[in-house]
Amino acid sequence: MSISRRQLLKSSAAAAAFAGGGLWLFSDYPLSFKARSQFSLSAEHQQIFWALIPAFLDGAFTADDQQTMYRVLSNIDHAFAILEPHTQAELSQLLDLIQSRGGWLLLSAGASQLSELPLPQKLDLLQRWQQHYLQLLRQAYQGLHELIMAAWYGDPASWAPLNYQLPAQMKGLLND
Amino acid sequence: MIKDIIAEGLAAGWRHIDGAGLQKDQHLQCDVLIIGSGAGGGISAQVLAQAGLTVIVVDEGPLKSSQDFKMQERQAYPDLYQESAARKTKDKAIGIFQGRCVGGSTTVNWTTSLRTPDLTLQHWQQRWGCKQLSSDALRPYFEQAEQLLGIEPWLSTNANNGLLAKGCHALGWSYQPVPRNVRQCWDLGYCGMGCPTNAKQSMLVTTIPAALNAGARLLSRCRVETLDISKQAVHGASLQALDQQQRPRKVKVKVQARHVVLAAGAIGSPAVLLRSQAPDPYLLMGKRTFLHPSVMSGALFKQEVMSHQGAPQSVYSDQFVWSDGAEGPCGYKLEVPPVHPILLATKTSGFGRFHSEMMQQINHLQVTIALLRDGFHEQSVGGEVQLRGDGSPVLDYPISDFLWRGARRALLSMAELQFAAGASKVYPLHEQSQLVSSWSAAKQLIEQLPMQALATRLASAHVMGGCPMGGDEKQSLLNEQGDFRWLTNLSVIDGSIFPTSLGANPQLSIYAIALRNAQLLAKRLRV
Ligand SMILES: Cc1cc2nc3c(=O)[nH]c(=O)nc-3n(C[C@H](O)[C@H](O)[C@H](O)COP(=O)(O)OP(=O)(O)OC[C@H]3O[C@@H](n4cnc5c(N)ncnc54)[C@H](O)[C@@H]3O)c2cc1C
Predict the structure, then answer these.
(1) How many CB pairs below 8 Å do chains A and B form together?
(2) Is the ipTM reported for this complex over the cut 0.85?
(3) Helices and strands (DSSP H and E) totals, chain A
(4) Contact B289 CB / ligand 1 (< 6 Å)
(5) CA B173 to ligand 1 centroid distance, Å
(6) Average of pLDDT values for A163-174?
(7) Minimal CA–CA distance to B467: which of B290, B228, B230?
(8) Which residues pair with B366 in a beta bridge?
(9) How far is it, in rounded angstroms, from Cα A84 to Cα B248?
(10) What is the pTM of this model?
């Protein structure tokens, strides 16, 4: 996601009007979410994932399964912590952009705050990013897609509904 | 219990330094420093160490062994792959899989072992002046590599590969069994996460142990930053020790060597040369890097396919690789990948309900891939390795219309094949795709899908070129023995030496040319 706020702002003439920074996306943490202090991701960045996980993974587990949500978040944090420095920097830039008022207005084309969006609108937004004519938005979408999908489907907790199992011959040989 | 070749070798006194445990700076000396322990580096290490030369092999990745291979993508990717298997081209349009561990990509590859196609070698002779590398001249080296690594056709085919064969058969397309580098393979299907039974004859369990038994030293988790160059000659290299997270530590290592073999792989080898500011009068370094960019197509079957079980690749089809000659429209090879959850989830376009329903059908999914043969046509010039501000490499790979036309034809062929094999639905991997229930609907869909970066899903596990060999100094950095033209004491022996892609999976081509060039080098260095 080599998306930088500056590049994005440049791409839209109307952008200048919204160029105010600052935290805007989440006026308050939603009641359901409590940021983890021991994570590498900042509380604000965790919150972005918290809002996007149910959309990317709609149908993978029940919508109100908070324990699983935290599990996915924790897997994302783990993956983030070991990303190459350049990828980590790019992802942080993207999250900063989503988190800032000007960036969000551009990315969302004027949608309300991320934490307040109902699921159908989040899905709508993902589809717009996925198929956007601007390559930067498709990059951002695919970057988030990869991170969130890997965080859930790499976790053996996700395998039961898939009926995916390690080969029986290896039981006992993997010593864990 | 499975014998742990690495643990036993270390206990028996192999000389190994782990950069993550190094306490202070080191100065080491040897006859030959080999940078990278993958296909090219592994073969070079065995040949040169057994020739009686003192050898140091260095790899930026960790030394892992069968006991560490737990058949889980979430562990294997960060442990064994470049950038946790999430390496991408500069614009993020193509995912790149490369190994980053002792054994290199051979530790995680899928074991398909094919000789360099005759047409590729002919093209290299005619277009790139590689006069010495005919099929006849290379035959003894192919045979030697096949013997060394137990390469034989694999005839027990899982359903994923079986359906590729079935579709080809129904359409009258050619298909062949895949030879694999395995001995006593358990047919598990987890080659991509490191072989837990040591059946795969990767460099990790063959040539690297042979080199260590012959007295070579291995440095893992040490990254070569630059070659030490003075007076038009290479005298060694400067290394950076890395911690367990692959982050640079304070400790540095200097290796002084009579000769250096650069085998850091395509992307890795050009990066070392670029960081070292090696001479490059015709500005070729890192350019013409090829990927066999691959498009993918998923197909749902009523019966279970279980595409994660069994040898990952046992059938391939060359029906479309050369149909219009080497220099005609973009050819493509049809194969299948192993389908494990992270690989499937991250490559499958879409999200939400659609995506989770696809995932829940993982056991009914057959996936076909088409590897585009890049580099043979004048409109297919590959990509360019560049350095980021921090010195790390990135591959800029713009995709030409020539390739996009090949991609569209390949998506069409795969859908046709999957329906011919009995698929109930087909899903070309593309951000604007949908499930289609018939070949005619697939045709309609694929013809209107925009072939575009970050819309068409693309991946590659075959990185080649960037340090080309050839007959003409204006077009090649190396001669056919792998000697770097503009510096003495430096050879390159890995996948970066190819002037084009191959049109076949690369490992056996690298093994054979590495055997040849390392043997020639040993002769020269021993006198
Ligand atoms: C998932 C996967 C599946 C594949 N399947 C097949 C297959 O079935 N058949 C086939 O023929 N091919 C396959 N390939 C490709 C094949 O394995 C590679 O083409 C081949 O191993 C390349 O050999 P190499 O010597 O060029 O580089 P590699 O084998 O990649 O080795 C390069 C090594 O250099 C190290 N390195 C890089 N930079 C530095 C540095 N600066 N300092 C120190 N060390 C460095 C890396 O850590 C790495 O270990 C596959 C690859 C992957 C990743």
Answers:
(1) 128
(2) yes
(3) 7, 0
(4) no
(5) 31
(6) 84
(7) B290
(8) B299
(9) 11
(10) 0.96
